[in-house]
Amino acid sequence: MKGQDSRLKVLVADGSSHARLVLESILSSSPNLEVIGLAANGAQVLETLRHRKADVILASVELRKNEQLLVFKQIFSECPTPIVMLVEKEQLSLELLKEVIDLGVYGVILKPGPTARPAYRTRAEEICRKVAAVRDSEYWDPKKRLSMLGEEAQILPQPEQKKHRNVTADTIIVIGASTGGTQAVEQIIRQLDPELKASVLVAIHLPPKFTHSYA
């Protein structure tokens, strides 16, 4: 039966009043979705969930008071509800996905530019489709969700990783000395070229009490 009662009940949570109204309009255009409330911050989200049951929450990760994903954690703890997360392209990473998946996030939508006022109507079909996907049981399996959302994250430029020199090298230099050779080893290390394409291993025989301080 595809009547009024069969529609998924959606709570929209975003700090921007403009975004809330646009998202409400988009979701309301689908015959399978019903917007039951709009929330500007975490407190309003929880207050709404205490009085009305939502099948899914469409929420911005930048929702006010969601620092360290506090709002998502409160939802998961007090009123467990599937979440479709709105996030900017530059913020999305596998690390973030791993964290939010355990808090009930089963879908991700990249915010279309501009940053100040995302053009959500250009993603209207995607928004409705991903919100409605809560009916698909496979989204409740965390491993499947991580695999699915990970594919989305992999098409994005990942945050630049710190470069580690000489993680691997064809040349290995081994320096060994006894207690009397500590100063000599220090002088050698100081004069090594920072661009040296080699792995340097140092082994020094020292009394236990001096090992930590020398290192």
In a nutshell, what does this entry contain?
36% of the residues lie in helices and 19% in strands.
Describe this structure in words.
- The protein is α/β, with parallel strands linked by helices and 215 residues long.
- It has helices at 17-28, 42-51, 70-78, 94-101, 124-132, 142-154, 182-190, 208-214, and strands spanning 8-13, 33-39, 56-60, 83-87, 105-110, 172-177, 199-204.
- The strands form two sheets. It has a five-stranded parallel beta sheet, sandwiched between helices. The chain has a two-stranded parallel sheet with strand order 6-7.
- Helix 2 (42-51) runs parallel beside helix 3 and helix 4 packs antiparallel against helix 6.
- The protein is elongated, with a radius of gyration of 26 Å.
- The chain starts with 7 loop residues before the first strand and ends with a helix.
- The relative contact order is 0.11.
β-strand amount:
15-25%
Low-confidence parts, pLDDT < 50 over ≥5 residues?
Answer: none
- SS content category: alpha/beta
Q: Name the shape in a single word.
A: elongated
Average predicted local confidence, pLDDT: 81
Number of extended strands: 7
Tell me the strand order in the biggest sheet. Answer: 2-1-3-4-5
Rg (C-alpha, Å): 26 Å
Number of helices: 8
User: Separation of termini?
Assistant: 72 Å
Main beta-sheet annotation: 5 strands, parallel
- Please bin the fraction of helical residues: 25-40%
Helix and strand pattern: EHEHEHEHEHHEHEH
